[in-house]
Amino acid sequence: MYGLGGERDLPERELNHLPGYEDSKPVRIGNAAVSQFQADVVGEVMVALERLRMAGGKEDHFSWALQQALLGFVEKHFEDRDFGLWEMRGEAQYFTHSRVMMWAAFNSGIRAVRIHGLAGNVERWELLRERLRQEIMREGFDRKIGSFTQTYGGGQTDAALLVIPQVGFLPYNDEHMLGTVARLEEELLTDDGLLLRYRTESGLDGLEPGENPFLACSFWLVEQYARTGRTVEAKLLMDKLVGLANELGLLSEEYDSKDRRMAGNFPQAFSHLTLVRAADAMHGVDRLSLAVDSAVPGQEVDGPAEGGVTGRTGQDS
């Protein structure tokens, strides 16, 4: 994390003498997330670079060595709890999404060797990927509620779980995902049909309860609907979301349904990136997808396709 001047020393502090925009206290400068461990980040980078390879991108003398070093970092922190995609201010946890993204990091490295012909410690990465797969299915899925959960042993869901099929851990239509979607719809859909990130009432994030729907999460839901044949619901939600953009087509981070206005960071790149993903899903575009169609023959029914390399991609099809 960097400041506007490139600085890395970003301690967070509160400016109690300032009221904030529309009395939105506390006013903070700096960012406490600078000192957080977020285990999903390397997975995001590795997945992006794998898709670049699928699109024809070539490694240079630095890029693949960097990726191997990143996988070494993931292995070094294999047992560490983190603060999750949403930069929780509470205690570190084993976030299911973070563990899936660690799986995705190793999976991308394995694909680089097995599919693209690069050299790497693939046997070690396959071992770690399989350890994560078994752990996630054992600890991150609650059979009593039929859903993946936000954290290991936790009882609540998280919209970030919609990323699970996007990185190829499970098919979109796998029963574990369909159960998770049903649970998300029950817990996190607002009366206006938009999706919250998670229920803030749990206190897990260390913040006061109450939050507006997060637009990226609703676009993820559009993608999930479209990839599982729920096309009418996908179109209705997509139309609603696109209708929230301003006259320039820009979207914010959140939407305040009560006051009918944008909220949070503006413009928000995350909202626009997930919009593109949702539009691709609605039109059946999947050339660079890492998604898997179904489990590998012989794979146990309670686990994902082992390598996540059997999906509809430009390399595999």
Question: What Rg, in angstroms, do the CA atoms define?
Answer: 20 Å
Low-pLDDT ranges: 294-317
Helix and strand sequence: EEHHHHEEHHHEEH
Q: Report how far the terminal alpha carbons are from each other.
A: 38 Å
What CATH calls the topology of the largest domain is Glycosyltransferase
Given the C-alpha coordinates, what overall shape results?
globular
**Which band does the percent of strand residues land in?**
under 5%
Structure, described:
The structure is a single chain. The chain contains 8 helices and 6 strands, in the order E-E-H-H-H-H-E-E-H-H-H-E-E-H. It has helices at residues 41-54, 63-76, 96-114, 122-139, 175-188, 215-227, 231-242, 269-282, and strands at 13-14, 28-29, 141-142, 147-148, 254-256, 261-263. Strand 5 (254-256) and strand 6 form a beta hairpin. It starts with 12 loop residues before the first strand and ends in a 35-residue tail after the last helix.
Please outline the helices and strands.
Elements: E1 13-14, E2 28-29, H1 41-54, H2 63-76, H3 96-114, H4 122-139, E3 141-142, E4 147-148, H5 175-188, H6 215-227, H7 231-242, E5 254-256, E6 261-263, H8 269-282
Antiparallel strand pairs: 1-2, 3-4, 5-6
Helix pairs in contact: 1-3, 2-3, 3-4, 6-7, 6-8, 7-8
Provide a compact summary of the structure.
This protein has about 325 residues and is mainly alpha-helical. It has helices at about 40-55, 65-75, 95-115, 120-140, 175-190, 215-225, 230-240, 270-280; strands spanning about 15, 30, 140, 145-150, 255, 260-265.
Key structural traits:
single chain; 317 residues; mainly alpha; Glycosyltransferase; 2 domains; two-stranded antiparallel ribbon; two-stranded antiparallel sheet; 8 helices; 4% strand; disordered C terminus
